[in-house]
Design a protein that fits this description.
This protein is an alpha+beta fold and 207 residues long. The protein has helices spanning 2-18, 31-35, 73-87, 191-204; strands at residues 40-44, 54-60, 63-69, 107-110, 141-142, 146-148, 154-156, 165-168, 172-176, 179-183. A five-stranded antiparallel beta sheet has the order 1-2-3-10-9. A three-stranded antiparallel beta sheet has the order 5-4-8, with no helix packed on it.
């Protein structure tokens, strides 16, 4: 009987471990610990997220991610959850090509053919002499207003035929300890793949 109980417990543990699942944390991470995870920080959000202490974006394994840091796990699960939903909110297009919620800071143009349009990260200074055909797969990444090319010069991002949908750059998020982790998707993956990528980010954080 004891042997049977032991086998049952062992089988349950193996089944749970093989079925995957999301990693959770009860740790309060610091900004320095977030940066030590392998994040190549590039900037801060302009948005002042309620109750947060820091908010940064950068690159993890070659793709853009973002962290919003809160002083406690409880605030991350309340204020942080609201912020995450706001920054990843997609809406049905009823006006021009606007497919994002009103509070989304970092946007991306999706839906046009590869090789059409321009590409650049919101907030980065870009050289206008490169013309309108630079970038990767014709994707325009920007903030709500403009891409800066110089101190006082901007490129107007008025919706046009090259940008079918202006959507949130980050489509997935995870509350992990006192953190909100957000990530952009790849065109070559589905939603489960993007969710798994965020799990990889959380696993890279120090215990």
């Amino acid at each position: 009987m004891k042997y049977l109980i032991f086998l049952t417990i062992l089988f349950t543990l193996i089944s749970c471990s093989s079925s995957g699942g999301t990693k959770e944390s009860t740790k309060v991470f610091t900004l320095e610990e977030v940066k030590s995870s392998g994040l190549k920080a590039r900037g801060d959000f302009e948005t002042n997220f309620q109750d947060s202490t820091d908010s940064i974006w950068g690159f993890f394994k070659g793709r853009e991610v973002a962290f919003i840091i809160y002083p406690s796990i409880e605030l991350a699960k309340s204020s942080g959850l609201n912020a995450a939903k706001e920054q990843t909110k997609k809406i049905e297009i009823v006006e021009k090509n606007i497919g994002h919620g009103p509070n989304v800071e970092k946007l991306v143009c999706r839906g046009h053919k590869p090789g059409v349009g321009v590409s650049g990260r919101g907030g980065l200074k870009l050289n206008s002499s490169l013309g309108s055909n630079f970038g990767l797969n014709g994707i325009l990444l920007t903030n709500k207003t403009s891409i800066f090319t110089g101190k006082d010069e901007t490129i107007n991002n008025t919706p046009d035929k090259t940008c079918v949908r202006r959507e949130p750059l980050y489509t997935h998020y995870k509350i992990f300890g006192n953190l909100v982790i957000m990530a952009e998707p790849l065109t070559t993956e589905d939603e489960n793949d993007t969710a798994d990528f965020i799990e990889n980010i959380s696993s890279a954080l120090p215990e």
